[in-house]
Amino acid sequence: MLKNLYIENIAVIEKTNIDFTEGLNVLTGETGAGKSIVIDSINAILGNRTSRDLIRNGAENAFVSAEFTELSEGALSVLDELGYEAEEDGSVLVQREMSLSGKGKCRINGRPAPVSVLKTLGEQLIDIHGQHASYELMSPELHITYIDKLGELEAELEQYRDVYRQYSRFRSELEKANVDESERARKIDLLSYQVNEIEQADFYIGEYEDLVERRQIIENKEKISAGFNETHQYLNGGDDSDGAIQQLEYACDSLEALIDFMPETENIALRLRSAVYELEDCSGELLSMYDSADAEGESLEEIEDRLDLIYTLGKKYGSSIEEMLDFLAKAKKELEYLEKFDENKEELARKCEKAKQQAQQLAKALSEKRKAAADEFSSSVKREMTYLDMPNVELVVKIEECPLNNNGCDNIEILISTNPGEIPKPVAKIASGGELSRMMLAIKNVLADRDNIDTLIFDEVDTGISGSAAQKVGLKLKEVSKSRQVLCVTHLAQIASLANSHYKIKKSVDGGKTYTEVTSLDHEGRRDELARIIGGVEITKATLDYAEEMLSAANDQ
């Protein structure tokens, strides 16, 4: 559950620290006091997109920190998969800093984390059920997700999607193969020319570097020859002088003559003799190297022509010989495929048909389970809505077969009728704001056991309702809060009176600046806040008494 929320420099909130509790946590306050800012801050912690406009005027950075305790097995598993660990007490601290420069920072238990990780983890920690959920209800294409969640069909849906993606890939390849004969012939001619041109060039990996080296040798042939000759003369001498090798041999002979008189010179003599052999080897290798370079027989013009060919073909087939050879391999493969067109097409058609049949079977099986889940969904949601003061509601899940798509072979839409005698119609054409709010709560309650998420947030779930309906919405929230933590932003005293913990959000102006603070209310504070919600500007003894009566009644629930 969400144990602590710290907010700094978010909109009109300079600094505030909120300690939430188990059960039903309610946030109330005047319109515009900043209730939505608390929800925006939680959204930031959950890795959702934020705006620089969220940063308090005059501040460079904004910061939100949230501590979660008693994590579910699902949350702990995801945390481990993401490469993070919970603290020894099973808690996790999630932090996010935003700046005007756009360079934000995120951390999980002090370790840096990308926003995407916050989003993945956040899906296991909190479910925010706000006004956007009403838009989901009015979007028929999203209704299928309710049925799949209730039927716990996610694994089977993913299995179907794997096969459907395979079928779609085969179908796409088959469509590409079904080009006309002239186009295929044109493609074969082009590929044949390209393959032949690269094969005729007969490149090898490393050839460019070899050519550049050989060109350098030819261009500097005189310098190289002079250098070899000088080195040879220094080592081997000339007509009028001895070289280093001969001089070193003289030194060895002289020293070896002393061994009988001074045996300790033998080791040095051996080392000098070894040096003579090493210099003779070096001289021999240099001579072979010079003879090899001199015997190349390759002209500078031939090398330049070869380099020019590499450059010319490189503009068509790749910037390096490696890329050109890679292009050659792919072109030969495609050419072989086109030349074996009929054989390949038949094989591809068989694979496509097999994948299609498998996808159809999985889609049909999925559809049958959806029908059973749809019946359960209709009866369960209707029962919840009846409790929420909509006794005449009729709810139907319409399932129509459609061509295979990413979700199977079903088009699913929820239809409702709120008045007796009316035929169920699409939600968007029937439901009012208050009815949408109650329907949203009913669906959420029906799906609650499938989520395994410890904290539910209801943002203004009381939109468009009052009276007994509001009282029952509050009781339903209270019921949900017995098995998980619930946070609710509300304007209604009937809901606020049922809270286990009540927080007042108040806005004030000081020195020309706006400040919002969040205060945890005691019993007297709750009574005064309920009286404000009930009575408006003037709070009378009667409203205070009524607020006290509501709190007493709530304690009996």
Characterise the protein shown here.
The chain is elongated. It is 57% helix and 18% strand. It is of the alpha/beta class and 557 residues long. Helix 2 packs antiparallel against helix 3.
Number of helical stretches of at least 4 residues: 20
Strand content: 15-25%
- Helix share bin: 55-70%
Rg, Cα atoms, Å: 41 Å
* Low-pLDDT runs: none
Q: Could you report the average pLDDT, rounded to the nearest whole number?
A: 87
**How are the strands of the biggest sheet laid out side by side?**
2-1-4-5-6-7
Shape category: elongated
Distance between termini? Answer: 23 Å
Number of strands: 15
Biggest β-sheet strands, sense, barrel: 6 strands, antiparallel
Structural class: alpha/beta
Q: Which labels suit this protein?
A:
alpha/beta; 6-stranded mixed β-sheet; about 20% strand; about 550 residues
Topology:
Blueprint: E1 2-10, E2 13-19, E3 24-29, H1 35-45, E4 61-68, H2 73-81, E5 92-99, E6 105-108, E7 111-112, H3 115-125, E8 126-129, H4 131-137, H5 143-150, H6 154-177, H7 181-201, H8 207-219, H9 221-236, H10 244-256, H11 266-294, H12 300-317, H13 321-339, H14 341-387, E9 394-405, E10 408-417, E11 425-426, H15 427-430, H16 433-451, E12 455-459, H17 467-480, E13 485-489, H18 493-496, E14 501-510, E15 513-520, H19 523-535, H20 541-555
Parallel strand pairs: 3-13, 3-14, 8-12, 12-13
Antiparallel strand pairs: 1-2, 1-4, 4-5, 5-6, 6-7, 9-10, 10-11, 14-15
Helix pairs in contact: 2-3, 4-16, 5-14, 6-14, 7-13, 8-12, 9-11, 10-11, 12-13, 14-16, 16-17, 19-20
